[in-house]
Design goal:
With 372 residues, the protein is α/β, with parallel strands linked by helices. Helices cover 35% and strands 15% of the residues. It contains 11 helices and 12 strands. The relative contact order is 0.17. The structure holds 4'-deoxy-4'-aminopyridoxal-5'-phosphate.
């Protein structure tokens, strides 16, 4: 069975597993404890992992806060900003194509009296800069925009968005879950980004671990937010709880591997995507329609309609041959809000399938498509 649902999650890299195992067994110490070796070793391992993630993102290691994943990072940043800056304003701007961990958090804040603007997007799911500019007002405390869309792969113009938010002096948070470890991110080139969310399992790390980037000032003081989890004061007081050392080590190793192979992985994903596109066009000319853009996208993500075919039935039928999905795994029970927001009809949404690749795939494995 060919695994083509890498936007939902990825297979752990063998080197990641090897790096993690000692921290599940002999090196079991709590990194907040002191002096004895298992604690000091755990602390050193967390430090190294933090450096690997910071290096992947182009930021300082003290700007990395470990969380349980992007769902938590998104909740922490959005609720944390909303609470801390409530005397400054109550307006948040986001888009209609965010992950539920952003949309549901915003809906919750609306129920608490905050005002949320949900920006429309273009035919490929991208935000229009002019629209964003028009919506920013004195009460705006946060702009939260997805960097790379999980269903379509489209990349927002983060350079221009970062510049605008910097000029307007408004915090920018980006959900970078689908782009971290896949495209080059150098946060030093995006001074307008104050917060970023990512998850380890999207780039061959373990599940249940993620991070939030929180920008620091020249005195190395992090941008203030209200913590989501109060307690022992780990992670600079922003995210309490004993650190999941084995998972952190795994995410760090995955970040290091992704960083070292960014270019070659990218080239591989581009060629895998091209090959699948060619096969699909050859076999199903006239019966398919691609929803995704062909440029400015995460390589290796294809969203395609099989006209007149129910996507749930197709995914089920394909399951013995290949693992694909109808869209996001997190909203698989409902028709995609992302595809609806780009203007697809309910029939078009219900005939769409997402193929998402990883660099673990060999081109020869794509021959399975010939059996369709
Ligand atoms: N944001 C995006 C864009 C995602 O694709 C996902 C995972 N599907 C998340 C957030 C949530 O990540 P996690 O489930 O690891 O918390």
């Amino acid at each position: 069975m060919l695994y083509l649902d890498n936007s939902a999650t990825t297979k752990i890299h063998p080197q990641v597993k090897d790096a993690m195992l000692p921290y599940l067994m002999e090196e079991f110490g709590n990194p907040s404890s002191k002096y004895y070796s298992v604690a000091e070793n755990a602390k050193a391992a967390v430090k190294e992992a933090r450096q690997s993630i910071a290096s992947l993102l182009g930021c300082s290691d003290s700007e990395i806060i470990f969380t349980s994943g992007s769902t938590e990072s998104n909740n922490m940043v959005i609720k944390g900003v909303a609470d801390y800056y409530s005397s400054k304003g109550n307006h948040i701007i986001t888009t209609k194509v965010e992950h539920p961990s952003v949309l549901e958090t915003c809906a919750y804040l609306e129920s608490k009296g905050y005002e949320v603007t949900y920006l429309d997007v273009d035919h490929y799911g991208r935000v229009n800069l002019e629209d964003l500019n028009n919506e920013i007002k004195p009460t705006t405390i946060l702009v939260s925009l997805i960097w790379g869309n999980n269903e379509l792969g489209s990349l927002n113009d983060m350079g221009a968005i970062s510049k605008l938010c910097e000029e307007k002096n408004v915090f920018l948070h980006t959900d970078a879950t689908q782009v971290t470890g896949k495209i080059e991110i150098d946060l030093s080139e995006y001074p307008g980004i104050t917060f970023l969310s990512c998850s380890g399992h999207k780039f061959h790390g373990p599940k249940g671990i993620g991070a939030a980037f929180i920008k620091q000032d020249q005195y190395e003081i992090l941008t203030k937010i209200t913590p989501l989890l109060h307690g022992g004061g780990q992670e600079q007081g922003i995210r309490s709880g004993t650190l999941a050392v084995h998972n952190i080590v795994g995410m760090g190793k995955a970040a290091q591997i992704a960083h070292n192979s960014l270019r070659s992985n990218l080239n591989k994903l581009v060629s895998l995507e091209k090959k699948i596109n060619e096969i699909l066009i050859e076999k199903f000319e006239g019966q398919i329609h691609f929803n995704n853009d062909s440029k400015n996208k995460i390589p290796g993500v294809i969203s395609v309609q099989f006209k007149g075919i129910n996507n749930e039935l197709l995914v089920k039928k394909l399951a013995p041959l290949m693992a694909v999905s109808t869209g996001s795994a997190c909203s698989s029970s409902k028709p995609s809000h992302v595809l609806a927001a780009i203007g697809l009809s309910i029939d078009e949404v219900r005939s769409t399938i997402r193929f998402s690749m990883s660099s673990f795939i060999n081109e020869e494995e794509l021959d399975v498509f010939k059996q369709l």
